[in-house]
Specification:
Blueprint: H1 3-30, H2 46-80, H3 95-100, H4 108-115
C-alpha cells in the first residue's frame, strides 16, 4: 500500500467522521424524550411511544458512537503508521476491505473467526 492509497483512505475517513457526527446530532434532535414539544402531550399511549422511540434512537446512537470511535482510532493509526494492521493477529488487512470499510480494525480472517 502506497502513500496515495493512505491519502485516499484518510479522506474517506474524514468524510465518514463528519457524516457520522451529523447523524448522531440528528438522532439526538429526534429523540422525543429530549423534546419539549412532547412534554405536554397527554394522549393515551404517548408515554409508551416516547419510551419505544427513545429506546430505538438510543440504540442507533450507540451504534453510531461505536462507529465514530473506530473511525477516530483508524485516523490515529494512520498518523502513527500503524494503519492497516489487524489488531488481533498483526497481519496486513486486505486493501479491498480497507476501501470498503476504512474504519475496520481487523482482517477478514479474524472477522470470520470472531463472528462464529
Amino acid at each position: 500500500m502506497n502513500k496515495n492509497f493512505f491519502a485516499k483512505i484518510q479522506d474517506l475517513l474524514l468524510k465518514k467522521e463528519k457524516r457520522v457526527e451529523e447523524e448522531i446530532k440528528a438522532v439526538e434532535e429526534d429523540d422525543p424524550v429530549m423534546s419539549d414539544a412532547l412534554a405536554e402531550a397527554t394522549e393515551p399511549g404517548t408515554d409508551s411511544w416516547k419510551t419505544d422511540a427513545h429506546t430505538q434512537l438510543a440504540a442507533m446512537k450507540q451504534n453510531l458512537t461505536d462507529l465514530l470511535g473506530r473511525i477516530k482510532k483508524a485516523l490515529v493509526s494512520l498518523q502513527t503508521g500503524k494503519y492497516g494492521k489487524c489488531e488481533t493477529c498483526g497481519r496486513a488487512i486486505e486493501p479491498a476491505r480497507l476501501k470498503l470499510m476504512p474504519e475496520t480494525l481487523i482482517c477478514m480472517s479474524c472477522s470470520k473467526k470472531k463472528s462464529k
